[in-house]
Amino acid sequence: MNQGVAITGMGIISAIGNTVEENFTALTNNKVGISTIDNIVTIHSDNIKVGEIKKTNEALVAELALPPGNNFSRTAMLGAIAAKQAVKNAGITDINEYKTGLISSTSVGGMDMTERYYYEYFKNSSILKYVESHDGGDSSQKIADTLGITEIVSTISTACSSAANAIMLGARLIKAGKLDRVIVGGTDALAKFTINGFKTLMILSDTDNTPFDNERKGLNLGEAAAYLVLESEEIVKKEGKKVLAYVSGYGNANDAFHQTASSENGDGAFLAMQKAMKVAGLGVDDIDYINAHGTATPNNDLSEGRAIIRMFGDKVPDFSSTKPFTGHTLAAAAAIEAVYSVLSLQNNVIFPNLNFKTPMSEFDLLPQTSLKHKPIQHVLSNSFGFGGNCSTLIFSKSE
Amino acid sequence: MEAVKQELKEKIISVLNLEDVNPEDIKDTDPLFGAGLGLDSIDALELIVMLDKDYGIKLLDPKEGKAIFESIETMAKYISENRTK
Amino acid sequence: MADKNSFIQSWCTIQNNKIDLNGETIFESEPAIGFADFAKAAYRNFGWSYPKFFKMDSLSKLAFIAAELLLKDETSSETENDIALVFSNKSSSMDTDVTFQESIATKENYYPSPAVFVYTLPNICMGEISIRHNLKSENSFFIFEKFNPGFLSNYTDVLLSTNRAEKVLCAWVDFYKETYRANFYLVNSTEGLEHNETTIKTLFNT
User: Can A258 be counted among the known catalytic residues?
Assistant: First the structure.
């Protein structure tokens, strides 16, 4: 197998913790972050549950020590917090000592502010500053400016697979020698826009989400941000850096079926997994844990389940979805799940697929429902987005 | 009920952006989904919104929609029995 | 760094209600008419038959037209076609985002539209093209302040030289409040114009 690209740092903020350690503690103690919504006033508040970060925007502004006139959206603030953590975790003191870039992702961008202020823009000039921060690219630029990054900055917006694509692009940029290191990941805040949108597609659940359960009703939206620091082998050796894990495989494919639903047999999912395995040079026996996309929508879990069976046959490894802990964090999902995959490798542990009661009638797949300790060498992580954009990442242990 | 059926045909064409279809082309008992007009799952959701917006009927379980939206005939009957607007 | 040479085999620009294919204008409408009418006129002019076209949002219609012109002789519905999609723009899906936002703007008229919501992501247009041309290939959508041929050409060369795709359809496709621009080009590793940043800039006058 090929070794892959080194991960030397990570940072995360989610409904189950404000740091990597807090997230790990929650995952290993069944401490769930799904609740009713507090920070947003919406007519749906009694009918939905979300993975909300219980910090107000004012608290985030204070945490980042932002100046009073700033126009950071919630998305940008969450992203800046997580990215700073990752850079610190990687022991980086001078960000431009080596050629360092940022590939971020988002689907909400500054929509949280826009929906709040859109109708007041003509009446109140003090909020016009949020017009500029609406664009998806703005959150990335804000994060880049916060970190002091001057090299490549790009934003990927491919729905729920965005961060996986960002990680994939980052790995390729390192391998191609275009960058020495790169901060990769994604961020999305909760917004009425997404709540209403998902509600009208009738894929939100009013109860805690139950991935791979026969009675599953839909997903819980969440908000989060997470970033990894990827560094070239050269720098790792030169600086004697501790490698947390490796990005050893990645694949992206289009399902070519529907704008928002997945094909019955999970074609896109299957192709993405297949490609990732090929890049990693691994066989089906080598994967010890699958962190599934597992959103608990009737459609995704069926499609993904079928694709997993097509890929692994009767050798399906232990798998679970961690979305019962955090909710579905959209563009940040693949990034927080990348952090969880690395934690899984570092601690030889599989996180439970909570809320599971009844196996799906269509096949014989049982997720891992309790915390399980076993040696883990390779983790496969799936993230499938609207537009048929299917991505798979493979992470491997650092010895 | 005839008025409702005609109304429905016109609404479906405009709400679902069925460009080359005229109300006369849609027969009362033609299947709307699958063969027939070939509507898909997103169209079904739009029809659910339409039921609420234009007729005051709130459908909470999308699976119920399958029987109701079978044809113009079934839709008109359901609306006549359940409309609050 | 790339092992293979790469070539632009065809390109297309759609702007100001005018469609240029490989440098020649092949269709135009009155500049004053709105995009929806222009798109419909183009669709009819080329004799296409794809009813789903009319359900798409403006960004997807724009992308669809360009892709249809460049891919019509490239793909078949019977086989899976290995053409990667590398798209980009500045406005993301903002035009449709605003339309969706308006459907939830007031308490009195609060009816979020599922058909509109589905298009509130820029990469859905790539999904539409993938469905149409049976592409299960790699696809990615980038947000840039302006057209970035340097980035796109690098990325494309990597895809081709590492055999991730046989061909790559690259695009800048932006639509916001009736102002739009589509610059599409198809890259292969066999023949055509030399594929590099300078050529791309020349073809699209940027």
Answer: no
